[in-house]
Specification:
eight-stranded mixed beta sheet, three-stranded mixed beta sheet, 18% strand
Length: 296
């Protein structure tokens, strides 16, 4: 079985190398062969020289591509176009700041043999709690079916990508987030089940700019605004509009409940997250087209 690992990167050469090194430390069953597609989203191809030097002693094959058009959607769609010409059975997506668990591939083989599912995903874990932990996808059960996945830790059958002919939504390029959620929601709507497996772990580094309250507020607000767009794409213009405002009231209600639960862990962060997500939902239909491209 051949697996293509797709990683999009932007000015994170050191993190990218750390990410790739974890694949060398991983236990990979003999039935699996992996190779890499790295899409560099810098204008000047800033990662090319670093990867050329690193690949000399790297035991896996790396295919490097420079996508000069700035924006994560352009980079991810470049992956979708390029993988069509690469021989593999499965395609996995990881972030350039992710550190794959040592037993990821062992657990993948075990899960795929048991479930025979075409899309598998798992948690991205912060080794130390930080504000960014608020946004981690949570599933109550150790294993279950979910309606979407993120490109920080997901593997999908290549043929499914080709046959569905779905691409990441360029409208979400200006947010720098949310495009993966919409992509997998669309696949799920087509009837493709997404299986969550707790043992498929990826760890995320702590970034200094993700420590402040300001970052939390801005991210929560953007999630609210883009959530309106996602609902319209999945449920249609009218029904999506109604769902957006139902969720607006829901998040506002959650912020009130959080205020009333001062003993709850990290309750202040949760109040801000719920409240500004609600505000984003409220003004999303009005300001969506006016939002400028979000630069990382």
């Amino acid at each position: 079985m051949e697996i293509l690992i797709c990683i999009c990167t932007y000015k994170r050469n050191n993190s990218l190398i750390d990410c790739l090194k974890t694949f060398e430390k991983a236990i990979i069953p003999t039935s699996i062969k992996i190779k890499f597609l790295i899409v560099d989203n810098t204008i000047n191809g800033g990662a090319k020289k670093t990867l050329k030097y690193f690949s000399k002693n790297f035991k896996f094959k790396i295919r490097y591509i420079n996508e000069k058009r700035r924006g994560i959607v352009f980079a991810r769609n470049k992956c979708l176009k390029e993988l069509r010409n690469i021989n593999c059975q499965f395609v996995a997506f990881f972030d350039d700041d992710g550190l794959i668990d040592k037993y990821w591939f062992v657990n993948f083989i075990k899960t795929i043999n048991e479930k025979n599912n075409k899309i598998l995903t798992g948690p991205q874990i912060h080794k130390k709690y930080n504000i960014g932990s608020i946004f981690e996808k949570r599933v109550n059960k150790d294993s279950s079916y979910v309606n979407w996945a993120a490109t920080n830790n997901v593997i999908i059958e290549k043929q499914l990508i080709k046959s569905s002919n779905i691409f990441f939504d360029h409208n979400l390029n200006k947010f720098g987030m949310g495009e993966d959620q919409l992509f997998f929601l669309k696949l799920n709507k087509l009837g493709h089940k997404i299986y969550w497996e707790k043992s498929l772990k990826v760890y995320e580094k702590l970034h200094s700019h993700r420590k402040g309250i300001r970052w939390l507020i801005e991210r929560s607000f953007r999630l609210g605004v883009l959530g309106n767009h996602i609902d319209k794409k999945i449920y249609g213009l009218l029904f999506g509009f109604l769902i957006n405002y139902l969720k607006c009231f829901y998040y506002f209600g959650c912020s009130i409940l959080a205020i009333c639960s001062p003993l709850q862990k990290y309750y202040k962060y949760k109040i801000l997250n719920y409240f500004f997500t609600s505000v984003g939902r409220m003004v999303g239909p009005i300001i969506f087209k006016k939002i400028k491209f979000y630069k990382q």
